[in-house]
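Q: I'm building a small set of examples for a reading group on sequence design. Run inverse folding on the following structure and report the sequence directly after it, with nothing in between.
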């Protein structure tokens, strides 16, 4: 048979019609890559993402699982991508938005790696619920140092307190009260001589000192509960209420689990300041009594001492040194995380020269330097004040 008489089935593969060619076979890796690019992921409900925080030379966001409470850090670019995961966008949509925002392409391997990270941590919609964290032991430590959880459900307890006190939490109630405590504080501290004499008088009268010391202890308890109620007011979760002791002292504590994830800087500042505010509010009845007493009344001097000690105790919590509330407030105001240890790390690197801290942006350098100077000044001031007080008491 001649070449022109060959049946069509004998034609070379390159000469066959396209419909007769076998379909290209995709490898398993290619099919997986195609599925990943077509996938439209969504974050599961309840995932918490913190605002941007300066942590050393880096800007980070904290991400927290709503069930396991496990948390980890991501950068601003990953935070941007997480904000796009609403179940309507695939890889092409995310890459386009990423390129528009950062003027650079999102590498496919980074997209795949991010999905793998979110999936293994159970943060994507449809992921199985991990086991909730084991509750901490009711008591830890020894007779000399430790803690004990005293409330079975801290969230429910603070919730009941919040519902009871909610009418008093409106700004039209709290702002006048804030003005009253500021006026009381200013009047008492305006006469340091009378405040010191009153303190000495109080220390010399045990029948007044002992009940006042009990009052201060309950004031500290109210201080801790105020943090929890304020956190509930802004949507926070109170995880634990208990007692912590360092023999012979024993104090209440209140732990807010998602404190760093509260929405807005104002909410975190209010929660941190709530304890000192309540301490000063509890002094208002004494302040009113003191204001209406005749200056020659013998009760006025020890009452002045009570007000002075109570005000110092409240304001000392606002000093920006760890672990005081003022330290947390400063961190929130500056938008930083772990300010004190990160400052120590910065100073250690700075001793090696400017090149060692080249990775720190100018804002981070200014913050860490300023905080180092401020912390040293506050410590020296506290030491000087304590020594002066002891000397004055001895010489009196």
């Amino acid at each position: 048979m001649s070449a022109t008489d060959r049946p069509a089935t004998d034609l070379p593969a390159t000469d066959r019609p396209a419909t007769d060619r076998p379909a290209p076979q995709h490898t398993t890796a290619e099919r997986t890559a195609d599925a990943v690019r077509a996938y439209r992921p969504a974050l599961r409900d309840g995932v918490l993402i913190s605002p941007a925080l300066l942590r050393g030379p880096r800007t980070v966001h904290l991400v927290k699982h709503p069930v396991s409470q496990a948390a980890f850090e991501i950068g601003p670019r990953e935070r941007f991508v997480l904000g796009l995961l609403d179940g309507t966008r695939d890889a092409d949509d995310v890459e386009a938005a990423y390129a528009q925002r950062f003027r650079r392409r999102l590498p496919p391997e980074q997209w795949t790696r991010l999905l793998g990270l979110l999936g293994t941590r159970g943060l994507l919609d449809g992921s199985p619920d991990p086991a909730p964290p084991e509750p901490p032991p009711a008591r830890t430590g020894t007779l000399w140092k430790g803690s004990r959880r005293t409330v079975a459900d801290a969230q429910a307890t603070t919730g009941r307190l919040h519902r009871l006190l909610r009418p008093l939490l409106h700004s039209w109630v709290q702002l006048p009260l804030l003005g009253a405590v500021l006026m009381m504080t200013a009047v008492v501290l305006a006469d340091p001589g009378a405040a010191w004499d009153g303190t000495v008088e109080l220390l010399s009268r045990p029948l007044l000192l002992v009940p006042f010391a009990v009052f201060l202890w309950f004031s500290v308890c109210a201080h801790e509960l105020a943090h929890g109620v304020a956190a509930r007011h802004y949507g926070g979760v109170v995880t634990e209420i208990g007692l912590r002791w360092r023999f012979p002292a024993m104090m209440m504590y209140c732990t807010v689990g998602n404190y760093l994830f509260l929405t807005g800087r104002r909410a975190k500042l209010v929660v941190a300041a709530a304890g000192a505010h309540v301490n000063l509010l509890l002094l208002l009845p004494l302040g009113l009594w003191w204001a209406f007493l005749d200056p020659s009344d013998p009760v006025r001097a020890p009452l002045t001492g009570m007000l002075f000690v109570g005000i110092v105790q409240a304001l000392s919590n606002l000093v920006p040194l760890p672990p005081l509330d003022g330290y947390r407030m400063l961190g929130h105001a500056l938008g930083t995380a772990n300010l004190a240890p990160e400052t120590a790390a910065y100073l250690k690197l700075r001793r090696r020269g400017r090149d060692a801290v080249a990775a720190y942006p100018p804002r981070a350098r200014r913050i860490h330097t300023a905080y180092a100077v401020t912390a040293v000044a506050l410590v020296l001031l506290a030491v000087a004040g304590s020594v002066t007080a002891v000397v004055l008491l001895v010489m009196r």
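Strands lie at 48-49, 53-55, 58-64, 71-74, 139-141, 145-149, 238-246, 249-256.
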